[in-house]
Write a structure and sequence with these properties.
The protein is of the alpha+beta class. 37% of the residues lie in helices and 15% in strands. It folds into 2 domains: 132 residues, Orthogonal Bundle (Lysozyme); 45 residues, no CATH class. A 4-stranded antiparallel sheet has the order 3-4-5-6, with no helix packed on it. It starts with a helix and ends in a 5-residue tail after the last strand.
Length: 194
């Protein structure tokens, strides 16, 4: 498995964790890569594949195992929602969240194996794998171009945010489309024309 395939596999779970906690998707992915990816074998380690523990959740200092990856993500979310991680959740930028997670008690190494400050390894992973591309705006901005698709019963919006084009969609009346709890819009980054 390549790191790109691992990111693709982890992405839906990272979006769910981000939606539930406010920790940016890029930071969630960086932490999960740091905690579970084995560069020597170029594959996810047993914390991902066997223990279903994406962030190496360790209640009482013991790395836990979960029946499914969904259960492991739920444990990650529950841990991140604890009071000690408020600084991570409220940090206003990717760098600030990486540094706050590095300063937290989550990892004894404080994510600085390649050198200080705390969280520097997470920042490096965000940059190396361009993880900020997954930090999508949760809802269209005011003034977005809005349309309604009566066939699929979806509301669509398109807008440019910080120089990047996005497409949002939301179920309209009678739609069968559902979203995870706490989210109201689906969103995707639009490709840049060649």
């Amino acid at each position: 498995m390549t790191i790109e395939a691992f990111i693709a596999e982890a992405l839906p779970y990272a979006r769910q964790a981000s939606s539930a906690t406010g920790v940016r998707v890029s930071v969630v992915l960086a932490q999960w890569i740091d905690e579970t990816w084995d560069p020597a074998t170029q594959s996810p380690g047993p914390d991902w594949t066997i223990k279903h523990n994406p962030g190496n959740v360790s209640p009482g200092g013991v790395v836990a195992s979960y029946p499914t990856l969904e259960d492991g993500v739920t444990a990650w979310v529950d841990t991140m929602l604890g009071p000690v991680y408020v600084p991570v959740r409220v940090a206003s930028s990717v760098d600030a969240q990486c540094m706050a997670l590095g300063a937290s008690p989550w990892a004894a190494s404080h994510y600085m194996a390649s050198g200080p400050p705390p969280g520097s390894d997470l920042k490096r992973l965000v940059t190396t794998y361009d993880l900020t591309q997954y930090d999508l705006p949760p809802a269209p901005p005011e003034g977005a171009d809005m349309t309604y698709d009566p066939v699929n019963k979806l509301i669509h919006a398109v807008a440019v945010v910080n120089g990047v084009a996005y497409h949002w969609w939301q179920p309209g009346a009678g739609s069968e489309v559902t979203f995870p709890p706490g989210t109201t819009w689906g969103v995707e980054r639009l490709p840049v024309p060649a």
